[in-house]
Amino acid sequence: MAEIIDGKILSQKVKDELKVKVEDFKNKYGRQITLAVILVGENPASQVYVKNKIKATEYVGMKSLSFYLPEDASEEEVKETVLSLASNNGVDGILVQLPLPKHLDENKILNLIPAEKDVDGFLAENVGNLTLGLPTTVACTPFGVLKMLQSINIDLCGKNAVVLGRSNIVGKPMAMLLLKENCTVTICHSKTQNLKDICKNADILVAAIGKPKFVTADMVKDGAVVIDVGINRTENGLVGDVDFDNVKEKASYITPVPGGVGPMTIAMLLENTYLCAERREQAL
């Protein structure tokens, strides 16, 4: 029976530690760390995410700026908002809540965020730095997963790690982080052959494909660490990419959904905002 890696407890610990660092920053530099959040449209899930992010930002002692634009906002309006924050020296981090309405070009808008204010870690410069092993801002979800793995005090060096999913915001950066920890990493995707055999060889299995209960017990090695990044809305509520009830009987550690990776993603957004603020001050 697997031990649960509780994202709620761990994220609270991260936020409480951050609270102290944010206060020290304020005392040292004489100003608050500021995170600006832009929400375009009225996507209910996005509204909940933004509300939770603002609440967490204020909890750790950071200043939160919120910009709400209508669903039919033009690309120029959104760009102007981003550019005004990019040039504002009082803003340390900029977050554009995704997804954007379909008439807006996501890449064009995100690329207006300066790399040093990219708290999501999505920009090519930050992704490239991660690939090269240079100091950078790492995408929040993979960063959170790494913290979860570190929290159980396992030696990652030499472990076989399998990442299910090759998205730019989870799968690829997750693989890079695990590689940096000296894991032997395999990325699987929709075209992968012999998927079950590859997964069964994993000491660490990270599922991030967006398919409810896709990872079944017969795909998991005895004693594996299973991290479930998936959040899928079903008739029975939120479920992950892992068949939790059955897989937990084989794994040594497992994350639940909800209450696993999700809370850690928000905690690492705040950690990234703090790190961006520190780097900006050190560069002055």
Q: Could you provide a short overview of the structure?
A:
The chain is α/β, with parallel strands linked by helices and 284 residues long. The chain has ten helices and eleven strands. The chain is globular and about 50 Å long.
Number of strands: 11
Global shape: globular
Number of separate helices: 10
Give the neighbour order of strands across the main sheet.
1-11-8-7-5-6
Largest sheet: 6 strands, parallel
Radius of gyration: 19 Å
Average of per-residue pLDDT values: 96
What is the H/E string? EHEHEHEHHHEHEHEEEEHEH
- Helix coverage percent: 40-55%
How large is the share of residues in beta strands? Answer: 15-25%
Q: Report the uncertain regions.
A: none
Distance between the termini: 52 Å
Oligomer: single chain
What does this 3D model show about the protein?
The chain is an alpha/beta fold and 284 residues long. It is built from 10 helices and 11 strands. It is globular. The termini are far apart.
Comma- or semicolon-separated keywords:
alpha/beta, globular, 11 strands, 10 helices, 6-stranded parallel beta sheet, 284 residues, 3-stranded parallel beta sheet
Structural topology:
Blueprint: E1 3-4, H1 7-29, E2 34-40, H2 44-59, E3 63-69, H3 75-86, E4 93-96, H4 106-110, H5 124-132, H6 140-151, E5 160-164, H7 171-180, E6 184-188, H8 195-200, E7 204-207, E8 225-228, E9 232-234, E10 237-239, H9 244-247, E11 253-254, H10 261-283
Parallel strand pairs: 1-11, 2-3, 2-4, 5-6, 5-7, 7-8, 8-11
Antiparallel strand pairs: 9-10
Helix pairs in contact: 1-10, 2-10, 6-7, 6-10
